[in-house]
């Protein structure tokens, strides 16, 4: 991947990541001597750094539509809390049973099963508190934001996708069902991020801008998962910061069940182009288009 081509995007991602990190630290600064361990467990996973793609989508859609990052940041942080909770729970022995996450021991390996479970629960509930208290949003927009988050995180979104994923282990499922799985488990929060950014800029879910954002996000979500499936085969644990080959070990259906590496890469390219086409209704979408290409070409 040419770092020079993505110089502006990488700078924007780094700037956003730094701002999100500071905001998250503010939302999670308190402690208590009687149950501080669960707060430590929350911060351990939440403040792990990274590119913060989902918060970037929230803030960048808001910016592209003329909004203020002060309005979108609480929503970006709330979404990142939900994403982090899902990673903590995904790694648990009852789910994917992974020992590594982002190059360090998974939460349950560091704090134990029970505290990791509770840390995830705490982050999920804290997310709604943060979204509901977004001072720069009008009351009706806060309600809509909480509704978007709840649907994306719940059984009609990410959790529904996780149930399909667990139920599909060591089974043959159709490509149609695989696409449904990924549109829920991975795609729901990515779509939510884009729509939250529109909402923070004053464009509700029934607006043309929000519908365009949804199409874009759904496309990059599928491309992201297709690339993930490839990296699980062709990358290394050192590069990814987590175990590789786990999909095959767990008997999971992936894009590589239906396509070879080249065909999967071609599919990811097609849905990425479709996603970029959807940006025509977004005024200042150059960075979002660059992000789509960057995610397609990522190696970690």
Descriptive key words:
300 residues; globular; 16 helices
Give the arrangement of secondary structure elements.
Elements: H1 7-27, H2 36-46, H3 53-64, H4 69-90, E1 100-101, E2 104-105, H5 107-111, H6 113-132, H7 139-153, H8 158-167, H9 175-185, H10 187-200, H11 208-234, H12 237-240, H13 246-249, H14 255-258, H15 261-277, H16 286-297
Antiparallel strand pairs: 1-2
Helix pairs in contact: 1-3, 2-6, 3-4, 3-10, 4-6, 4-10, 7-10, 8-9, 10-11, 11-15, 11-16, 15-16
Task: Give an overview of the whole structure.
With 300 residues, the protein is mainly α. A two-stranded antiparallel sheet has the order 1-2. The chain has helices at residues 7-27, 36-46, 53-64, 69-90, 107-111, 113-132, 139-153, 158-167, 175-185, 187-200, 208-234, 237-240, 246-249, 255-258, 261-277, 286-297; strands at residues 100-101, 104-105. A hairpin with a 2-residue loop joins β1 (100-101) and β2. α2 (36-46) packs across α6 (113-132), α3 (53-64) packs parallel to α10 (187-200) and α11 (208-234) runs antiparallel to α15 (261-277). The protein has 16 helices and two strands.
């Amino acid at each position: 991947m040419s770092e020079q081509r993505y110089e502006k995007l990488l700078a924007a991602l780094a700037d956003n990541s730094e701002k999100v990190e500071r905001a998250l630290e503010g939302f999670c600064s308190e402690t208590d001597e009687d149950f501080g361990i669960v707060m430590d467990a929350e911060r351990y996973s939440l403040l792990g750094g990274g590119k913060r793609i989902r918060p970037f989508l929230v803030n960048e859609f808001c910016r592209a539509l003329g909004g203020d990052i002060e309005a979108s940041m609480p929503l970006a942080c709330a979404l990142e809390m939900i994403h982090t909770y899902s990673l903590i729970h995904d790694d648990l022995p009852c789910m994917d049973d992974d020992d590594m996450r982002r190059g360090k021991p998974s939460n349950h390996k560091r704090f134990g099963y029970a505290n990791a479970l509770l840390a995830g629960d705490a982050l999920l509930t804290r997310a709604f508190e943060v979204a509901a208290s977004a001072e720069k949003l009008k009351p009706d927009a806060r309600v809509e934001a909480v509704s978007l988050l709840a649907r994306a995180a719940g059984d009609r979104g990410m959790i529904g996708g996780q149930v399909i994923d667990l139920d599909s282990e060591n089974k043959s499922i159709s490509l149609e069902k695989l696409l449904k799985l990924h549109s829920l488990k991975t795609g729901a929060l990515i779509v939510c991020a884009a729509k939250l950014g529109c909402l923070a800029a004053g464009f509700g879910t029934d607006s043309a801008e929000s519908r365009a954002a949804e199409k874009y996000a759904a496309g990059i979500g599928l491309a992201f998962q297709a690339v993930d499936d490839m990296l699980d085969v062709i990358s290394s644990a050192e590069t990814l910061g987590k175990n590789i080959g786990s999909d095959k070990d767990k008997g999971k259906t992936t894009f590589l069940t239906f396509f070879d590496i080249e065909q999967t890469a071609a599919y990811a390219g097609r849905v990425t182009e479709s996603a970029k086409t959807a940006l025509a209704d977004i005024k200042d979408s150059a960075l979002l288009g660059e992000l789509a290409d960057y995610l397609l070409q990522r190696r970690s």
